[in-house]
Amino acid sequence: MAHVELSLSEVFVPSARASTELESDNVGQWSSTVGRADEPCLLIDADTRVVAISTAGCELLCLGDPAGLIGRPLLDGGLRLLDFTANRGELTEAEIDKIPPLLALSSGRLARGLLRVQAASADSSDATVDAISTPVLTDGAVAGSLTFFSEV
Question: What residues have CB less than 8 Å from 34, skipping those under 6 apart?
Fold first, then answer.
């Protein structure tokens, strides 16, 4: 059996001040990253307003131009979520509260789930996307959520 030893000559312990400085503008730092991202992603604040969304995220979620969504509530920006039944009904308010971007806000934890998004035109089929969300912290409190999407 192999034997492995690990020793540390110096232990790095970040100071509380450095941690606070890094967290103090997490939403702002992620905003510029999300806005330039090639991947479909979305950043919302604690009030569920869109802080940033990638162009690929707008295309995947059938939302149009990213600039028109900034500052608007996520669900007032044209995002139409459907259930997975054959009737394709809109989600109820209780179901909407459980979508990953909102669940990450309310729980302060990672959230993952499938979303069915209504197509922008009647000619297109609805999109099914896998959403993975993480809360974004500022000064130790949930200030928003960051979501990455993948088409299923």
Answer: 41, 42, 43, 51, 52, 53, 54, 146
Instruction: Report the alpha-carbon distance of residue 84 to residue 43 in Å, rounded.
Output: 25
pTM of the model: 0.81
Whose CA is closest to 97, among 57, 48, 41, 144? 48
The token pair at 40 is 């479909």
pLDDT confidence band for 2 (50 / 70 / 90)? low
DSSP 37-80: -SS-EEEEETT-BEEEE-HHHHHHTT---GGGTTTSBGGGTT--
Give pLDDT tens digits for 130-146: 999 999 999 889 999 99
Structural domains in the chain, sorted by start = 19-151 (3.30.450.20)
Q: Is 74 exposed, middle or buried (0-12, 13-18, 19+ CB in 10 A)?
A: buried
